[in-house]
């Protein structure tokens, strides 16, 4: 069901966002896993790199979990993923050929199969449809970020997440830093007032260029764009939503998940101008305004051979807080100085060694499956949609060069992802030009 702006604001409005056990398992005598009544069966939708890793983290989160079904638009990607997971997880992978679903409707067939938990990791534009379907099918959900590329899609996500909550379904988001223990320690202190009232904030996500797949002769235009989804805003939301949303989410976390009032920004295609980069920008710069005149300054770029930055810095009336994702620094300066000094305990290299050294990616799944076992499903829906909205408003401000209120962003009727897609479709959205695009 599509939720129009009028329907959504009538039934929920912006106020929605303001509020918006021990495992049992059976090990057969031959050493192979065998199913039992307590086995949780997992389905993976979206078999790229992130989906593949998420599946292994899910299987590693609970002794009695198996991967039972996989779905992807492309058979080669599904098979590569299957082989990778199988090589690492062995007999916890129990996906036969009848449960390898390929095509644009593969998600529907997977959700009709006998699974308990679904991992949503397809390109972001598909997330609203996949999330709605997963909730309607009564599945517990791990939902990779971001969740929508346009406001109509985000309104669908908000409705679906509320439906998941009413059905007592787990909904864990892919905002991995929220599951990073050093950041929980640090932002917890900020929220406890250790730096006082926040006066200003700065967040960055400046990085280099990412992967690209050369076009093959047999690919249609749609397949080529789908295989290079990062570079098409109708599939990715642009990198402010697809990637840099992590920094915006940390900023939101520090602000107590209070929504800003408005955002003014700019952006463009300065270096990454080749046709192979589709229609996305390579840089954005934003100023978010909160109540009481508090401002947050945000910068992101994807440009090769430029200085990297991936951090959040907060200035309060009683001190400062610095969280740097590159250096691992988590520090409070001022009268209540504090530093997180155990930076090696939760590194990715130690992710699978023992329960005391879990990566943030693993922690997401540990908590998801533990909540299901305890019949207290974990729910991230309220804050995860707020961070997506903040990123969406930023992209709108960057594309137009105008000030965009958070209400305007949520109420927008602009559709980037078309309702119906097919392998032979022709779809082209020109790159935005600030001051011209409305």
From TrEMBL:
InterPro entries: Gfo/Idh/MocA-like_OxRdtase_N, Gfo/Idh/MocA_oxidrdct_glycsds, GFO_IDH_MocA-like_dom, NAD(P)-bd_dom_sf, TAT_signal, TAT_signal_bac_arc. It comes from the Bacteria. Residues 191-320 form the GFO/IDH/MocA-like oxidoreductase domain. Gene3D superfamilies: Dihydrodipicolinate Reductase, domain 2 (3.30.360.10), NAD(P)-binding Rossmann-like Domain (3.40.50.720). Coiled coil: none annotated. Residues 40-165 form the Gfo/Idh/MocA-like oxidoreductase N-terminal domain. PANTHER family: BCDNA.GH03377 (PTHR43818), OXIDOREDUCTASE FAMILY PROTEIN (PTHR43818:SF5). This is Dehydrogenase. It comes from Parapedobacter defluvii.
């Amino acid at each position: 069901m599509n939720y129009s702006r009028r329907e959504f604001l009538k039934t929920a409005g912006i106020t929605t966002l303001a509020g918006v056990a021990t495992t049992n398992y059976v090990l057969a005598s031959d050493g192979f896993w065998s199913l039992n009544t307590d086995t949780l069966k997992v389905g993976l939708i979206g078999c790229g790199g992130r989906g593949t890793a998420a599946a292994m983290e899910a299987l590693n989160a609970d002794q009695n979990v198996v991967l039972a079904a996989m779905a992807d638009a492309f058979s080669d990607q599904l098979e590569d993923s299957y082989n990778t997971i199988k090589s690492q997880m062995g007999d916890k992978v129990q996906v036969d050929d009848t449960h390898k679903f390929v095509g644009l409707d593969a998600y529907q067939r997977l959700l009709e199969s006998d699974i308990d938990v679904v991992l949503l990791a397809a390109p972001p534009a598909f997330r609203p449809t996949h999330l709605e379907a997963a909730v309607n099918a009564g599945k517990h959900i791990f939902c990779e970020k971001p969740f929508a590329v346009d406001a109509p899609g985000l309104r669908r996500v908000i409705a679906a997440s509320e439906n998941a909550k009413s059905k007592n379904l787990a909904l864990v988001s892919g905002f991995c830093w929220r599951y990073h223990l050093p950041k929980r320690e640090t932002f917890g202190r900020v929220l406890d007032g250790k730096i006082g009232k926040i006066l200003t904030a700065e967040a960055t996500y400046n990085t280099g260029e990412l992967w690209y797949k050369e076009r093959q002769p047999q690919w249609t235009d749609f397949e080529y764009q789908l295989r290079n989804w990062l570079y098409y805003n109708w599939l990715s939301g642009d990198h402010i939503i697809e990637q840099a949303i992590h920094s915006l989410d940390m900023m939101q976390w520090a602000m107590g998940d209070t929504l800003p009032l408005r955002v003014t920004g700019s952006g463009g295609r300065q270096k990454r101008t080749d046709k192979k980069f589709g229609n996305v920008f390579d840089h954005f710069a934003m100023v978010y305004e909160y109540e009481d005149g508090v401002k947050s300054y945000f910068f992101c770029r994807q440009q090769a051979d430029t200085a990297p930055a991936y951090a959040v810095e907060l200035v309060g009336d009683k001190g400062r807080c610095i969280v740097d994702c590159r250096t691992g620094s988590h520090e409070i300066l001022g009268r209540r100085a504090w530093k997180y000094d155990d930076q090696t305990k939760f590194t990715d290299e130690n992710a699978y060694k023992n329960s005391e050294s879990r990566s943030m990616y693993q922690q997401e799944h540990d908590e998801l499956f533990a909540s299901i076992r305890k019949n207290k499903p974990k729910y991230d829906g309220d804050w995860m949609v707020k961070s997506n909205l903040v990123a969406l408003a930023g992209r709108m401000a960057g594309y137009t060069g105008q000030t965009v209120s958070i209400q305007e962003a949520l109420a927008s009727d602009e559709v980037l992802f078309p309702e119906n897609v097919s392998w032979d479709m022709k779809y082209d959205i020109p790159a935005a030009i600030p001051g011209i695009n409305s």
